[in-house]
Write a structure and sequence with these properties.
Strand content: 15-25%
CATH architecture of the largest domain: 2-Layer Sandwich
Family: Belongs to the ROK (NagC/XylR) family.
Bound molecules: zinc ion
Number of domains: 3
Structural class: alpha/beta
Pfam family, one: ROK
CATH superfamily of the largest domain: ATPase, nucleotide binding domain
Oligomer: single chain
InterPro entries: ArsR-like_HTH, ATPase_NBD, ROK, ROK_cs, WH-like_DNA-bd_sf, WH_DNA-bd_sf
């Protein structure tokens, strides 16, 4: 049974070991002297912590370092975190695609893959595909199933955190009611289920545009509009899950019926299906990629559609920002590929609706991870779940 980050670095009993592990994971291999400088801990404390970690087999001897310029004495020996001790799977179940990434214990991506899923697929259709794709990606990465300690799986729509179950009001009707245990039985490892926008927020926080930011809001502009909240470096899912479901904020009381049963939710005016419906009279049946190509080419109608959607999202995001005042708003998902065409209306909405004190107004940026953000976030969730990534 592989040891976990938590087992070797329990707070209180081994805070120096924890500091060494975090430093090796985030900043790479180092000598004991470098670790002392990085962590601010005394050299004898570092030496003792590294000895314990070497004995436990969690860190490895990584060979001599380059002699540091201006420093006397022989070069030290570097140590590194052994990423091969544990691997995790991150998966995203979409409308038509299934994506999987494999990461090692240090968060390095070791492999990734994608499979197509049929229209209106169910969990019974998708789970065998997930198992097959995970095995193929692991094989191509040179690993085996035995090395995987945990998996994170992102699904569209709300997930009950307590029950670890996909909600009935999710976008993937064929997956509603599915539990983490159902997926665990297929993959053979413990599984954590989470909503895709929450997971995208975790991905940007751990690997992308929100790295090092204490409190951020990531908004996924996709087949639905969802947001993920990172509060003091932790994913905030609400008391029982469902936090950040901003796509169901009412924006037009006379608007179209939403799949949730309400009228005029943000999703009905700004999510991808609503945009494609609105585009139909002028452009016929086009895909989101075709719509975005028209935006890129400067087509006035396509640009207006995306700008208006972003503006509606911006008003809702501004309200969310008044509530919990993040430092940063990150825009991800298919529509974020329109770049400044979505960024600027959101910035304008924040200027219009947020408090005038510019010190408290969040910056708005595009996500850095593109379509890898959600599966990477799912892998981060698995690393946290299995103790290889601190939860805060
Ligand atoms: Zn709704």
């Amino acid at each position: 049974m592989p040891r976990t980050f938590g087992e070797v670095a329990r707070p209180g009993s081994g805070s120096a070991r924890s500091a060494v592990l975090v430093s090796l994971r985030d900043r790479g291999p180092a000598t004991r002297a470098e670790l002392a400088r990085r962590t601010g801990l005394a050299p004898p404390t570092i030496t003792a912590a590294v000895r314990r970690l070497l004995e436990a087999g969690v860190v490895l001897d990584a060979g001599p370092s380059q002699r540091e310029v201006g420093r006397a004495g022989p070069p030290g020996t570097r140590v590194a975190l052994d990423g091969d001790l544990a691997w995790v799977l991150g998966a995203e179940v979409g409308f038509r695609t299934l994506r999987v990434v494999v990461c090692d214990a240090t968060g390095q991506v070791r492999g990734q893959g994608l499979e197509r899923l049929g229209r209106d697929h169910s969990a019974d259709d998708g789970l065998p595909v997930l198992r097959g794709l995970a095995a193929r990606v692991l094989d191509q990465a040179g690993g085996s199933a035995g090395r995987v300690v945990s998996a994170g799986v992102a699904v569209r729509g709300p997930v009950s955190s307590a029950r670890q179950q996909v909600s009935q009001s999710g976008e993937l009707a064929g997956w509603s009611g599915l539990t983490a245990q159902d997926v665990a039985e297929v993959l053979g490892v413990p599984v954590r289920l989470e909503n895709d926008a929450n997971v995208a927020a975790l991905g940007e926080h751990v690997f992308g545009a929100a790295r090092g930011v204490d409190t951020s809001l990531t908004v996924k502009l996709h087949s639905g509009i969802g947001a993920g909240l990172i509060v003091h470096s932790r994913l905030f899912t609400g008391a029982r899950g469902g936090a950040g479901e901003i796509g169901h904020t009412p924006v037009d009381p006379r608007g179209p019926l939403c799949r949730c049963g309400k009228r005029g939710c943000l999703d009905t005016v700004a999510a991808v299906p609503a945009l494609l419906d609105a585009a139909r009279p002028r452009y016929g049946d086009i895909s989101v990629s075709e719509l975005l190509r028209r935006v890129e080419a400067g087509d006035a109608g396509a640009t207006r559609l995306v700008q208006d959607a972003a503006s509606a999202v911006g008003d809702v995001v501004a309200n969310a920002c008044l509530l919990f005042a993040p430092e940063l708003v990150v825009l991800t998902g298919a529509l974020s590929r329109a770049g400044r065409v979505v960024l600027e209306p959101v910035e304008r909405a924040l200027l219009r609706e947020a408090l005038p004190d510019s010190d408290m107004r969040p910056r708005v940026v595009l996500g850095e991870l593109e379509e890898r953000g959600t599966p990477l976030g799912a892998a981060a969730l698995a690393l946290m779940q299995s103790g290889w990534l601190p939860r805060s």
